[in-house]
């Protein structure tokens, strides 16, 4: 049973003529007859008494009539509300994320939103993921795809969408200076490290180093994660980076992951100012993820 079939049923109740309803609703009389037969099969009742001259509702048809009218009316009202919302909702939404997140997570986040609200302009700003939370707090972005920091500001609403695993990586073919320390049990204290300059990834890297009781010799501190993979592939040292970045790097096949080293995953999600979460554009985007949002609000508030 679908809305179109109920609309045909309602029209036939009014016209009491298969030919008139078929013509008005742009359907063949035989197709209309089959649809009514299907409705009768669905309800298990004869809905019309028909002969060559007239069509009359049975008692079962009369009971279905107000129910069908209510269903169709409610459906049309909902469609009108949604269409009005689509037409009214417009403006610009500034979204910040890393280059990697722009193709690893952004399409899934925006695909339905773009279909529902085609008049909303998305301004994408890419950069160092460690800056995501600050970009939102400073008003430079309306919303961001961000790794959840250890201490999340009470000014933010955070909606968790994914957990991103992290890996320790070394050059696939290490130069002699590194090779002698990269045995089956690497001597991490003797190796140069390439680490994120700041942000959640740096917090997780520092925790791992502390757990290994390693005071690292830092070769470079990098803004963003993509360059870490490149520098490790070039043989500059050992890196700690998100797996999604390694997987999408053009030199990802030139690094070796040390799977035996356990680094806590990053929580990745959307964040915006709590004071702005009810603004129409932000609310429309957040409402596409109601399960995640409710969980986030219960946790943070």
From TrEMBL:
InterPro entries: IlvY_PBP2, LysR_HTH_N, LysR_subst-bd, WH-like_DNA-bd_sf, WH_DNA-bd_sf
Highest taxon of source: Bacteria
Residues annotated as domain HTH lysR-type: 1-58
GO terms assigned for molecular function: DNA-binding transcription factor activity; transcription cis-regulatory region binding
Keywords linked to the UniProt accession: DNA-binding, Transcription, Transcription regulation
A Pfam family assignment: HTH_1
PROSITE patterns: HTH_LYSR
Protein name: HTH-type transcriptional activator IlvY
Family that this chain belongs to: Belongs to the LysR transcriptional regulatory family.
Lineage: Bacteria, Pseudomonadati, Pseudomonadota, Gammaproteobacteria, Vibrionales
């Amino acid at each position: 049973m679908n809305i179109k079939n109920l609309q045909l049923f309602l029209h036939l109740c009014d016209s009491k003529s298969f030919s008139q309803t078929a013509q008005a609703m742009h359907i063949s009389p035989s197709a209309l007859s089959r649809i009514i037969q299907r409705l009768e099969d669905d309800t298990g009742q004869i809905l019309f008494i028909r002969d060559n001259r007239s069509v009359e509702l049975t008692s079962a048809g009369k009971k279905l009539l107000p129910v069908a009218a209510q269903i169709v009316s409610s459906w049309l009202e909902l469609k009108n509300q949604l269409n009005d919302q689509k037409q009214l909702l417009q403006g610009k939404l500034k979204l910040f994320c890393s280059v990697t997140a722009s193709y690893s997570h952004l399409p899934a986040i925006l695909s339905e939103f773009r279909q529902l609200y085609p008049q909303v302009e998305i301004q994408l700003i890419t950069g160092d993921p460690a800056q995501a939370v600050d970009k939102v707090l400073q008003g430079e972005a309306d919303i961001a795809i961000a790794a959840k920091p250890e201490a999340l500001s009470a000014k933010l609403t955070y909606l968790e969408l994914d957990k991103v695993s992290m890996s320790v990586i070394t050059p696939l073919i290490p130069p002699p200076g590194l090779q002698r320390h990269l045995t089956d049990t690497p001597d991490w204290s003797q190796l140069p490290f390439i680490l994120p300059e700041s942000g959640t990834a740096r917090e997780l890297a520092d925790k791992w180093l502390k757990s290994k009781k390693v005071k690292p010799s830092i070769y470079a501190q990098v803004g963003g994660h993509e360059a870490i993979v490149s520098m490790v592939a070039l043989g500059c040292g050992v890196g700690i980076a998100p797996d999604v970045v390694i997987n999408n790097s053009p030199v990802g096949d030139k690094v070796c992951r040390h799977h035996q080293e356990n680094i806590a995953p990053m929580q990745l999600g959307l964040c915006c100012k709590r004071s702005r979460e009810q603004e129409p554009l932000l609310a429309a985007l957040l409402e596409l993820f109601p399960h995640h949002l409710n969980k986030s609000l219960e946790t943070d508030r």
